[in-house]
Amino acid sequence: MTASRAAAMPSPQCAVLRSRFPATANDVSIQLARLHRAFDATGLRLSLQHDVTIVLGEVLNNIVEHAMTDIGAAWVMLEVTREDGRLHVETTDRGRPLPPALLASVDLPEAKLPIDDLPEGGFGWFIIHTLTEDMVYERQGGINRLSFSFLEQADEG
């Protein structure tokens, strides 16, 4: 195969992490630690690793705290893959539906208060929207599927 033909072919998808785990705060922490260890073998830039960890921490904790409350034996599926210069993330769960307003572009909450008086919540979805690309949510047959990606290369400029 010639070099030009190889360059035209899409790069194969590479799994970084695939996991099914109980929807608990402790298990979210375990999965984030597993992801951190998986990153060691990827060569991804450190700032991207941090962005993915921040976003996944927010997304997975939201699933546990809001979608899975009072649902027995709840599980979350997590898949992180690399393909064509992107890191793709998909979460799947059988919890409550994601409120549609959270999928729209979210503005930064008002922050006119002194830092010690700022509310604890309200910043998560702003952070998620700011750091990710092409977020898609769908619910079908009682299953929530949230996917998004990160560009592997930092913006030059």
UniProtKB/TrEMBL annotation:
PANTHER family reported in the protein's UniProt record: ANTI-SIGMA-F FACTOR RSBW, ANTI-SIGMA-F FACTOR RSBW-RELATED
Coiled-coil region list: none
Molecular function per GO: protein serine/threonine kinase activity
Domain Histidine kinase/HSP90-like ATPase: 21-149
Protein name: Serine/threonine-protein kinase RsbW
Pfam families: HATPase_c_2
InterPro entries: Anti-sigma-factor_SerPK, HATPase_C_sf, HATPase_dom
Domain of life, per lineage: Bacteria
Gene3D superfamilies listed in its UniProt record: Histidine kinase-like ATPase, C-terminal domain (3.30.565.10)
Keywords: Kinase, Serine/threonine-protein kinase, Transferase
